[in-house]
Design brief:
It is built from six helices and twelve strands. The chain is α/β, with parallel strands linked by helices. Strands 6-5-4-7-8-9-10-11-12 form a nine-stranded mixed beta sheet, covered by helices on one side. Strands 1-3-2 form a three-stranded mixed beta sheet, with helices on one face. It starts with 15 loop residues before the first helix and ends in a 5-residue tail after the last strand.
C-alpha cells in the first residue's frame, strides 16, 4: 500500500481574473452613463434650438403680418370725427394730429396726438380714440373764457384765472375787463396775485347769478386795488360800485334793497356811484367822486 498523499494548501492572494472582469464591467457602466449624458444633453440642446427656431418663425410671421396691416388699405383712416370745437378749427386739429395726411389707424400714436392738441392755447383736454377699421374720434374740451385782463395788452382769461392768449386786433369780446394787475405781479408776486385773482372770480360768480343792472353781461370793468379792494363799472349808465373785499353776495343784496326804496321814492334817477366798502352802510352819490 502506498502511503496517503498530503493535500497541498493553495493560498490565493488576489484573483486577477475577477478584478479584470470587475474593471471591465465598471468601464462599460461608465461608458453607458457618459453616452446617456451626451444623448440627454443633445436632446436638451435640440429642444432648445427647435424652440428658438419656432419662436423665430413666429416672430418673423408676426412682423410680416404687422407690416402687412400697416400698409393695408383696409386700415387707412378715411373718417375723422371731431367734437367740441368752437374757437379751434377742424383744419388745425387735423394738422396737429397729422390726420391731414394719409394715415394708417394702427400706426397712430394717440397719446402723442393728444399732447400736440393740448399744446394749443384754446384747448384744455383732448381724448383721441380709434374706431376700427377706418375712423378716428377726437373729443375736445376748449377753455372757457369768463373775462379779459389788461396787462398793457388785453388777454383772455379762462375760468381758472389763467391767461389764454392775446385779444386780436379785430376782436371785440363783450367780457368784463380786469384791471389793477401787471405783468410783474403775475411773475414776481404770483402767490399773492393768485389769491387776489380768486377774489375777483368770486365776485364774477356772484354777478353771473344776477339778472339786474349788475348782471355780469353788463359789467365792463372790475378793478382791483390792494388797499380798497374791488370796484366794478357797468356798461349801461357808466355806474361805479365800490364793493371792497368779501361778502359780495350780501353787499349787492343790500344795494338792491336800497335801490328799490329809492325807486319807490322816485330818487333813483341819475345815480352813478355806490360805495359798499363800509358794510352795512351803502353810500349813494350822483357823481363818480370817490
Amino acid at each position: 500500500m502506498q502511503p496517503p498523499q498530503k493535500k497541498k494548501t493553495i493560498v490565493v492572494r488576489g484573483n486577477r481574473y475577477v478584478g479584470a472582469a470587475l474593471a471591465k464591467s465598471t468601464a462599460r457602466t461608465g461608458l453607458r452613463r457618459m453616452i446617456g449624458a451626451v444623448l440627454h444633453t443633445g436632446k436638451i440642446l435640440f429642444s432648445g434650438f427647435f424652440l428658438l427656431f419656432t419662436l423665430g418663425l413666429l416672430s418673423a410671421g408676426l412682423v410680416f403680418a404687422y407690416h402687412y396691416l400697416l400698409h393695408s388699405p383696409t386700415f387707412m383712416v378715411r373718417k375723422v370725427i371731431v367734437s367740441g370745437l368752437e374757437r379751434v378749427s377742424q383744419t388745425e386739429v387735423l394738422e396737429r394730429t397729422g390726420l391731414d395726411r394719409p394715415s394708417n389707424i394702427l400706426a397712430l400714436r394717440l397719446a402723442e396726438s393728444a399732447e400736440h392738441l393740448e399744446a394749443h392755447p384754446w384747448i384744455e383736454r383732448v381724448t383721441v380714440t380709434r374706431r376700427f377699421p377706418e375712423t378716428v374720434l377726437v373729443d375736445i374740451r376748449e377753455r372757457r373764457t369768463v373775462a379779459l385782463i389788461n396787462l398793457g395788452t388785453l388777454y383772455y382769461l379762462d375760468e381758472n384765472g389763467r391767461a389764454i392768449c392775446r385779444v386780436g386786433v379785430k376782436e371785440n369780446p363783450e367780457l368784463p375787463i380786469i384791471t389793477g394787475f401787471s405783468r410783474e405781479d403775475l411773475i414776481e408776486r404770483e402767490r399773492f396775485t393768485q389769491r387776489d385773482m380768486r377774489s375777483v372770480f368770486a365776485l364774477l360768480q356772484v354777478l353771473a347769478g344776477r339778472n339786474d343792472r349788475f348782471r355780469v353781461e353788463n359789467i365792463s370793468e372790475i378793478n382791483f386795488d390792494p388797499v380798497r379792494g374791488l370796484s366794478l363799472f357797468t356798461r349801461e349808465d357808466d355806474v361805479c360800485v365800490k364793493i371792497g373785499f368779501g361778502d359780495f353776495q350780501g353787499k349787492l343784496k343790500r344795494l338792491g334793497r336800497v335801490l328799490a326804496q329809492l325807486k319807490i321814492k322816485g330818487q333813483d334817477a341819475g345815480l352813478t356811484y355806490f360805495n359798499l366798502e363800509c358794510s352795512p352802510r351803502v353810500i349813494v352819490r350822483r357823481t363818480a367822486e370817490g
